[in-house]
Structure formats: C-alpha cells, structure tokens
Design a protein that fits this description.
By secondary structure, this protein is of the alpha+beta class. The protein has a single domain, classed as Jelly Rolls (Sandwich), CATH 2.60.120. It contains seven helices and nine strands, in the order H-E-H-H-H-H-H-E-E-E-E-E-E-E-E-H. The strands form two sheets. Strands 1, 2, 3, 4, 7 and 9 form a six-stranded antiparallel β-sheet that branches. The longest helix has 26 residues. The protein is globular, with a radius of gyration of 20 Å. 2-oxoglutaric acid binds next to strand 4, strand 8 and strand 9.
C-alpha cells in the first residue's frame, strides 16, 4: 500500500485527504453491514411497510420517508456504532498508517468510531465552529478521520474546515445554546476561508484535533451518514489512561432498576 496521505498539506493546513482503494474497501465493509442491519431494523419497526432497497442510501431515505416518530432511523443511529464491521474500522491499516504519517507514533482509539445520521433538513446535531481537542486533552498529537458512508453530494452538508487554524492553541469555548454539548469558540471566528470537504468514495479527511471546523447543512432529501475515527498518540500522551469509558447504556440501567424493584429492593 502506498502512503495515501499528503503529509505536506496536512502540516500546512491541518487537514488532508487520504485517498486509496483501501479506503473504499473499508467503507464498503461497513456499509454492507449497515444495509443488512437497516433492513432488519425496518422489518422489526415498520413491519409490512418496511422498505427493501438495494443500497444503504436508498434504504435509509425510504425508511426516513415512511417511518413514524423517526423510530426506525433512530434505531439505526443507536445500533450502527455497535456493528463489529464498524468498530473494526479503527483497526484498518489504511487509517492507522495515515494517522502515523500525520505524526502519531502509537495511535490508540480516542473514542469508539462515531456514526452520525443527519436526516434531511435536521439541524439538531450540527456543530458550530469548534476544535476537537476539548474531547481529548491527553496527547498533543491527535487526529480525526472523517468520512461519508455512501455518496456525499454538496447539498448533503460537507464538513467545513478552517485551513491553518490547527496552529492555534486550545481556543476558549462558550456554551452552545442550540446544541446538546458544551462547545463553540467563544471568540468571533472569521470563517470566510473555510473549505467544504466532500470526500469521495475512496477518500477520507484526516484533520488535526486543533483544527477549527463545523458541520454543513443537509438540505437534500437523503440521510447523510458520516463516520469519525479518532486517535490519540500513546507515545506522547500525558497520562497512561483513556479518553472514553464504555459503560452500561440507559437501556440496561432502566431494566436493572425495574428488576431490582420487582425483586423487592427499594430504589432509595
Ligand atoms: O460531521 C459533522 O457534521 C461535523 C463533525 C464534527 O464536528 C466533528 O467531527 O467534530
């Protein structure tokens, strides 16, 4: 495999494209699992109305158009990150090699792979201008590898990147009124130079955790499915620890509480 990352562009801009047939192959494995799982979910949630489309993109778009209370696509959002084929992407040599080319001596997972599903017109989870360093604070060298699963057209919302902004230190954040998480650059950032990244089938975008970036808007009638792999560098980590802790889900905690009650243990 030849090195798929333009390291000079990465040093200068804080982001660069990874382009290789292995990127398309890695995505295809995850997408096949997602299509199969989406069909399974559709049958369980939508019964006789379940669509049965040939591609993951069409399947999700049909589920989204026909579902009640977003129940089927919400289940996809919950379940996709648990698929072994999705978790396995963190170990794909093409991404590990790109992280190493970006200067990480010993890449380790900063989170499990994150899957975003942005429904047509949905703005609930779009991110304002921010850096990702806030979520790590462990190793100075850390990167995100961002990719679309399925075709990403320009009206589906690119990720917007501010070239060179990775040379800044951690910028102060302020509470983000519209969002679920506490982040947004506190100062006014001039985003007129932002570039919209629309990686193709055999491409993914690698960016420095200090790069200022934000979500684009999905104004299409399709579901935008994107995935992020995040790596810290164990070699330069300030502490020998992790930045994420798998824990029991809300589902398990609620079921456990119900069982404890049924077995006669008081809740207080
Ligand atoms: O996918 C997006 O829209 C934005 C992703 C993002 O903000 C991030 O990876 O930190």
């Amino acid at each position: 495999m030849t090195m798929a990352l333009d390291t000079e562009a990465f040093e200068a801009n804080g982001h660069a494209c990874i382009r290789a047939p292995e990127v398309a192959a890695a995505k295809a494995r995850a997408e096949a699992a997602m299509l199969d799982t989406a069909k399974h979910i559709a049958k369980r949630v939508m019964g006789a109305n379940a669509p049965d489309e040939a591609t993951r993109g069409h399947q999700l778009a049909a589920m989204c158009a026909q579902e009640t209370d977003q129940a089927a696509t919400r289940a996809c959002y919950e379940v996709f990150p648990t698929l072994p084929e999705v978790i396995a992407l963190i170990n794909a040599p093409v991404f590990l090699d790109a992280a190493k080319a970006a200067g990480l001596e010993r890449p380790v997972a900063r989170t499990n792979p994150l899957v975003r599903l942005d429904r047509p017109g949905d703005v609930r989870f779009t991110t304002p201008l921010h850096q990702d360093y806030w979520y790590s604070l462990l190793s100075d060298r850390a990167v995100v590898i961002w990719m679309a699963l399925g075709p990403l057209e320009d009206n589906m919302g690119a990720v917007e990147l501010l070239p060179g902004s990775h040379k800044r230190d951690l910028v102060a954040f302020k509470p983000y009124e519209a969002g679920h998480e506490w982040f947004e650059c506190a100062e006014e950032i001039d985003a007129s130079d932002a570039v919209a990244a629309l990686p193709g089938r055999d491409e993914a975008i690698l960016f420095d955790q200090r790069l200022i970036h934000r979500s684009g808007h999905n104004s299409s009638d399709k579901v935008r499915v994107t995935l992020q792999l995040r790596y810290n560098d164990l070699a330069t980590a300030s502490h020998l620890t992790s930045t994420f802790t798998p824990s029991l889900s809300r589902h398990v905690l609620t079921r456990q509480a119900e069982l404890l009650e049924r077995w006669g243990y008081s809740n207080g």
